[in-house]
Amino acid sequence: MATQISAPPEPILPASNEVLLVASGDSRPSANETCWPAQADMESKLTAAFSAEGTAVRRAHPYDPETRHGFLSSQRMGMDVFANIHPQARVVVAEAVWQYSHHVLPGLRSHRGPILTVANWSGQWPGLVGMLNLNGSMYKAGVPFATIWSLDFTDDFFLRGLRQWLANGRVEHDASHVRPLDRAAIPEPEAAVGRQLARELQRRKAIMGIFDEGCMGMYNAIADDELLNPLGIYKERLSQSALAARMRQVSTKDARKVRRWLDKRGVRFATGPNPETDLTDGQILDQCKMYIAAVRMAHEFGCDLIGIQYQQGLKDMVPASDLAEGLLNNPDRPPVASEAGEPLYPGQALPHFNEVDECAGVDALITNRVWCALGLDPSTTLHDVRWGEHYSGDGIDDFVWVFQISGAVPASHLVGGYAGAVSERQPAMYFRLGGGTLKGVAKPGEVVWSRVFVEGGALHCDIGRATAVSLPEEETQRRWAETTPQWPIMHAVLHGVTRDQFMARHHANHINVAYAPTAAEADRALAAKAAMFDELGVAVHLCGRVNLE
């Protein structure tokens, strides 16, 4: 006799004046517990804003007194919560923290009701970065959604968007700053450079070394092979356990050579005696071993660029990868030789894409090829789009972004270079075994910014211009205090792109940046880079004021 399997009861559709709230969190319990008060405060203000519009907010998952937070902390937990949400319910994803998008993406992919992502305008943990990552993941997945952000959820911009979403499930944003590339507008010298480099890449293919794919649930950071291979880019999937094992084969003598090189160049290491809270010499030595091991593994597999995940797994085995990442992205870095004494990548950057963001890796590779061809310093990095505020004074009257990332920032991007850099211990909340960053203030200058992303099953690239500006010391310190003071910081003014235009359009939590000596050379580099992407079949979008003349 066949066993009767009863179907679970259908979830109840919420009332017409009710929305359900979910909050994706970290996978690290210490981060979720520490960040919960900020999330609770944000949800309280958001609930009050909905209430003023006659709509009740109900959490779809409760606060857990045992874990001391109310976040979705795993993919399984997120799936189970969405199994009890009616597919047509109005869902708000509220983020005041960094979050792992795969905790909620499975539920959102199958959801059919209106979805709104919301973040508080704060650099603290930060919800803006988490929301942008989730947004980019949903763009890639083809999930319709609306998005909005606010400092305190009482401003006209937020309330206008909230009312639109409550009325029709959409929020309209200004995207007039974006236009498709007109290849005929690219000057022929730069177009020729781009075409030649694209053909060279497709003829002599490049290898992207990936130490464990899918970091931190960043679905938007994975570029499928079917999209990369036509460009001439192929993945070498490597293991972080192999990297940790290879670190054990690096001699202490070789690691100390890297440390002495950094000491001679003026890097200051803020060390202390307690490994639980301080940066120690032992942690630094392990980071130097990781740097050497990464270069040697990249050479053995013939990699043109690499990405280290440093999250789940590696974080429980070795100190942070951030110091190594910053060194790799700079042609001026401690020399590394094979065990046989062969110099590896001498005088070259070995581009590293932080957090295994493969889209940023594609961008870094193209930037490296174009900048080298033009005789420019190819040092490049990706930053989190962390936060920002308008600043008036000292010749500046503009919105100044805080771009900030824990690692991958080359010293050549910092005021004073290596001598202007300090290495401080990573926050224990995220990095239990410590390790230092390469911290400093980004030098003022002309910048090309960009982001490669996946949408509609195809690769795209947004590209524009920016200026890194110098702010007074007290303002820099204030901004560091509002974000993560251990991490390098860039004060950036985007050309012709407002705060809200950028937030509405950007398909990722990361942004790639590279310098040029002058505005004219930055314009020229942008044109050649756009031409190379276009020749490779990537859809290029110019953002803001871009001069192709």
Describe the structure.
With 549 residues, the chain is of the alpha/beta class. The chain has two domains: 18-168, Rossmann fold, CATH 3.40.50.10940; 183-543, L-fucose/L-arabinose isomerase, C-terminal (L-fucose Isomerase, Chain A, domain 3), CATH 3.20.14.10. Helix content is 34%, strand content 20%. The protein contains 15 helices and 18 strands. It has a six-stranded antiparallel beta barrel with strand order 11-12-16-15-14-17, surrounded by four helices. α8 packs across α10 (281-300), α10 packs across α11 and α12 (358-373) packs across α15 (519-535). The chain is globular, with a radius of gyration of 23 Å. The termini are far apart. The model has no long low-confidence stretch (mean pLDDT 96).
Write the layout of secondary structure elements.
Elements lengths: L17 E5 L6 H24 L3 E4 L15 H8 L8 E5 L9 H6 L4 E6 L6 H15 L4 E5 L5 H13 L9 E3 L7 H16 L2 E6 L13 H4 L4 E6 L1 H10 L2 H14 L2 E2 L11 H20 L4 E4 L13 H7 L29 H16 L6 E14 L2 E9 L17 E2 L21 E11 L2 E11 L4 H10 L6 E6 L4 H7 L4 E7 L2 H17 L3 E5 L6
Parallel strand pairs: 1-2, 1-3, 3-4, 4-5, 7-8, 7-10, 9-13, 15-18
Antiparallel strand pairs: 6-18, 11-12, 11-17, 12-16, 14-15, 14-17, 15-16
Strand order of the largest sheet: 11-12-16-15-14-17
Q: Determine Rg (CA atoms, Å).
A: 23 Å
Please work out how many helical segments DSSP would assign: 15
Name the average pLDDT.
96
Percent of residues in helices: 25-40%
CATH topology of the largest domain: L-fucose Isomerase, Chain A, domain 3
Number of domains: 2
- Largest sheet report: 6 strands, antiparallel, barrel
CATH superfamily of the largest domain: L-fucose/L-arabinose isomerase, C-terminal
Distance between the termini: 78 Å
CATH-level-2 architecture of the largest domain? Alpha-Beta Barrel
Strand content: 15-25%
Low-confidence stretches: none
Class of the largest domain, according to the CATH hierarchy?
Answer: Alpha Beta
What is the global morphology? globular
Report the structural category.
alpha/beta
Number of strands: 18
